[in-house]
From TrEMBL:
It comes from Paenibacillus ihbetae. Keywords: Membrane, Transmembrane, Transmembrane helix. The chain crosses the membrane at residues 6-26, 46-68. This is Uncharacterized protein. NCBIfam families: CLC_0170_fam.
């Protein structure tokens, strides 16, 4: 039933959100820190955590809908 609501690529999108969030936190933040770009480092952290949280929330929502329906 849940397959009727969205396409099969939702889990790929979730993985991309989480992986890009980790990339922002690990790679981008380090590069901005080395370059002493404090504002960009802060934005990279916020966007990284936003991507991770968004991916987790959508994953939990998809699992909840799958269980309910």
């Amino acid at each position: 039933m849940i397959g009727e609501i969205y396409s099969g690529y939702l889990y790929v999108a979730i993985a991309i959100w989480i992986l890009t969030g980790l990339f922002n936190l690990v790679v981008d933040t380090r590069k901005y820190d080395e370059s002493q770009m404090d504002k960009e480092k802060k934005v990279s952290r916020v966007l990284g955590w936003t991507n991770i949280v968004l991916g987790i929330v959508i994953f939990v929502g998809a699992m909840t809908l799958k269980i309910i329906w």
